[in-house]
Design goal:
The complex is a heterotrimer of chains A (141), B (122) and C (492).
Chain A (H helix, E strand, L loop, with lengths): L3 H23 L8 H18 L2 H7 L2 H25 L24 H26 L3
Chain B lengths: L1 H8 L1 H19 L3 H23 L21 H31 L4 H10 L1
Helix pairs in contact in B: 2-3, 3-4
Chain C lengths: L6 H22 L4 H26 L2 E4 L10 E4 L1 H28 L5 H20 L3 H20 L4 H32 L4 H14 L1 H19 L8 H7 L2 H25 L5 H4 L2 H21 L4 H21 L3 H32 L15 H15 L5 H15 L4 H26 L13 H19 L2 H12 L3
Antiparallel strand pairs in C: 1-2
Classes of the chains: A mainly alpha (141), B mainly alpha (122), C mainly alpha (492).
């Protein structure tokens, strides 16, 4: 779609969508949302760029290689956080019994491993949405 | 009268079961493949509705701790289970839809009965 | 660091890590992707054998994820039966993967082979998790990972038939999952727990308070696991799916995936539902009769097929009926027979599908009538097919006899000799469609019509290993059977 109004609007709106997505991811332990929904919002903003401009502009924002690395990296980060809990001392994916710093309930940096896991899940979901979109669009050629 | 009052009390459970049966019936009998995927979503959504309805406590409020000694909270565990369930349902839907795109490219139709006809003549 | 305590979780973690690493490694260093997955499978095999030794010596092991005890956390449990199934799953997966490394280059497009390794490792990891988990919702998540990976390793071939077969499998599997989730909701509504151990304690009292919830949950579980494990009337997805998939996928699906669902049904019916439920509704009778019908009809359908892989797929429906008969008899010798059959049939059916794959690789032949005289062109392959068929029929000297022996013995012990007749009749029906292939392969007058490519050594080695295992399991069955008897007595 190469409409002028759509392009200008999406160019204006995309940073706000991305900031909102990052906000939902980071406040996963304080308010409703978390990794899945925040990652979906962030991924939707990247798909919006690819839809309102053409596909090359979208690929310039986040290329196939970057999406693939982020996808695998997010999942591996989740698994490695659990392994870190084993190395520190508790069971797999332990939070308080392994000694992650917990902090005050209600602050941003509280909850120990929950924040780290939420960020990794958000990265993975966003890159998965982008990869799915690329596969479906490019598969038609 | 007791039937009406018990229906009014268990309203959510009945709607969930009716939606589940509708979803299963459409998924098995209608021929269009996209309708089958939509029916699968209806079926999963009905079970999530049942889970949330189970967790409700009469007169309870949102499960975020606030000051007060004997506050009744709604059970938060079904909500966490459903979040996982929704993600699982979305992944299965995404995979099913991409399969439908590929099948349409090979067979030229979205109708499952026609695909069976084509397959049985090969 | 005491790593050995964490083995239950680490098995699943190592396999999932290999699954997520393999697309990255395949993008940059193609030759290193397969060894990474093989290393992960060998590490998982080492950990599961060490778990088996531990539970044999000191009893069941419980592992709490995140340090939270149930009912707040997810629990993994290892006892002798689960460790046995875990060893079978990972061992047979490693064996099939070594075959797959050579065979995939011929069947799939080059850029998707890295993704096939990912799906394979996800499938093995989720099956290991299903064998280990002690929590109903964790079972749901792992079942979904298993279902999507199983459908995806069929449709990755992107053929006309395999796409439609994979869609059919996905829709029926999704229906099974919806029924399973509704059953979990019924049990959660009645008791408030999701852990197997806590549910077992609660359900004994809840059965008198809320009987209809538990009946509905039992019926929904039979429908869900019956669809996924191809119990008789719900088997309709299996022939297309297993016949049109690439050969390592067929071996994996027919050999392992349908059995892990039968094992999950066994765990739920013996470890979650109370024994008094069987007095109210005869659940084991239902499973027993459906399984007997499956055993007979699977063989009848297989006799009518002309395509080799479809015949093997229909034969799988018959053989999974034996495993459900073992669960349905409600006797400890039947459990021994059923579980021994899980092990023997996993190896045998995987070997038969590997043989079919080798025949397709070397000659391109799929129809049974074109197989005349192939025994002189591919002798080792057809010897493997012969020994596999002998085990399917139940000829003494192979593992197939031991499992049928114990099933027939338990049928006599509970006083129902009719099922001995069914086991004998189905063995005869198995012979009717396996023996003609073997006979016409070796003793046909003319030579084989099509030209043959040489078979790689990897594939031949794996088939030899399979043959040796089948013969060994027929002669030296005493250790495994005594371990299974000891584990089965725990449930009665």
């Amino acid at each position: 779609m190469e409409d002028q109004i759509v392009r200008i609007t999406s160019r204006l709106v995309t940073p706000f969508i991305q900031v909102y997505g990052i906000y939902v991811i980071l406040h996963g332990h304080l308010s409703p949302g978390g990794g899945f929904s925040g990652g979906a919002i962030f991924g939707a903003s990247l798909v919006l760029v690819a839809l309102s401009f053409n596909l090359e502009a979208g690929v310039k924002q986040i290329s196939h290689q970057t999406a693939s690395i982020l996808e695998s990296g997010g999942a591996l980060g989740y698994l490695l956080t659990g392994m870190a809990a084993i190395i520190i001392g508790g069971n797999y994916l332990a939070n308080r019994s392994a000694g992650f710093p917990l902090g005050q309930a209600g602050e941003l940096f509280s909850g120990g491993a929950i924040l780290i896991i939420t960020v990794f899940v958000g990265i993975k979901v966003a890159s998965t949405i982008v990869t799915l979109f690329y596969n479906i669009i490019e598969g038609e050629e | 009268m007791e039937i009406l009052s018990s229906i009014a009390r268990n309203y959510y459970y009945m709607v969930a079961i009716i939606l589940f049966v509708i979803g299963t019936f459409i998924m098995l009998t209608h021929a269009n493949m996209i309708k089958k995927v939509i029916a699968m979503n209806i079926m999963d959504a009905s079970v999530f509705l049942l889970f949330v309805a189970i967790g409700y406590a009469y007169g309870g409020e949102a499960p975020i701790i606030r000051e007060g000694s004997d506050v009744v909270y709604v059970n938060p565990l079904p909500g966490a289970l459903i979040l996982t369930g929704i993600v699982v349902a979305v992944s299965v839907t995404a995979y099913a839809l991409s399969l439908i795109v590929k099948i349409y490219r090979y067979y030229g139709t979205c109708d499952y009965d026609e695909i069976c006809e084509i397959r049985s003549q090969e | 660091m005491g790593f050995a305590d964490h083995y239950p979780a680490l098995i699943v973690v190592v396999l999932f890590a290999a699954a997520f690493l393999s697309p990255l490694i395949y993008r940059w260093a193609e030759k290193a992707a397969a060894p990474v997955v093989i290393a992960a499978l060998m590490l998982a095999l080492f950990m599961s054998s060490s778990l088996m030794i531990t539970v044999q010596q000191s009893g069941p092991v419980f592992y709490h994820m995140g340090g939270w005890p149930p009912p707040w956390g997810i629990e993994f449990k290892v006892d002798p039966m689960r460790a046995f199934i875990l060893l079978i799953m990972i061992g047979v997966s490693l064996w099939i993967f070594i075959y797959a490394v050579r065979d995939l280059e011929h069947e799939l497009k080059k850029e998707v082979i890295g993704w096939y390794y990912t799906l394979y490792a996800l499938l093995v990891g989720s099956m290991a998790g299903i064998a280990l988990t002690n929590d109903l919702f964790n079972l749901f998540v792992l079942m979904e990972i298993c279902a999507i990976s199983a459908c995806a390793i069929i449709s990755i071939k992107e053929d006309r038939e395999c796409l439609e077969a994979s869609f059919k499998y996905l829709i029926l599997s999704a229906m099974g999952t919806g029924c399973f989730l509704l059953g979990v909701a019924m049990l959660y509504m009645a008791t408030g727990y999701l852990n197997y151990g806590l549910l077992q304690l609660e359900l004994a009292e809840t059965l008198t308070l809320y009987p209809r919830n538990i009946f509905a949950a039992a019926a929904l579980f039979i429908a869900a696991f019956g669809t996924k494990a191809a119990l008789f009337p719900l088997h309709v997805w299996l022939p297309d799916a297993h016949a049109s998939a690439p050969s390592p996928s067929s071996a994996m699906l027919s050999g392992l995936v349908i059995k892990i669902y039968a094992f999950a049904l066994f765990l739920i019916f013996y470890q979650v539902f109370p024994r008094e439920l069987l007095d109210l509704i005869p659940l084991n009778e239902i499973i027993l009769w459906l399984a007997s019908l499956g055993v007979m009809f699977g063989s009848v359908y297989a006799m009518l097929q002309t395509d080799l892989k479809k015949m093997l797929a229909y034969s799988s429906i018959g053989q999974i009926g034996y495993i459900f008969m073992g669960i349905g008899f409600d006797h400890n010798l039947a459990l021994v027979g059923g579980f021994y059959h899980i092990m023997v049939h996993a190896v045998t059916k995987a070997l038969l599908f590997m043989t079919a794959g080798t025949i397709i690789y070397a000659t391109g032949v799929r129809q049974i009538k074109d197989l005349a005289g192939i025994g002189r062109a591919l002798p080792l392959t057809m010897l493997a097919f012969t020994i596999g068929s002998a085990s399917m029929i139940g000829i003494p000297g192979t593992g197939g006899l031991i499992s049928k022996w114990y099933l027939a013995l338990s049928a006599l012990e509970i006083g129902r000799p009719f099922f001995v007749l069914i086991i004998l009749a189905s063995s005869l029906l198995n012979a009717i469609y396996y023996m003609p292939i073997v006979i016409s392969a070796f003793m046909h007058q003319e030579d084989f019509q099509f030209e043959t490519k040489p078979v790689p050594r990897f594939m031949l080695t794996t088939m030899v290993v399979g043959m040796v295992f089948i013969v060994l399991s027929g002669f030296f069955s005493r250790p495994v059977v005594s371990m299974l008897e000891q584990a089965a007595n725990y449930f009665f």
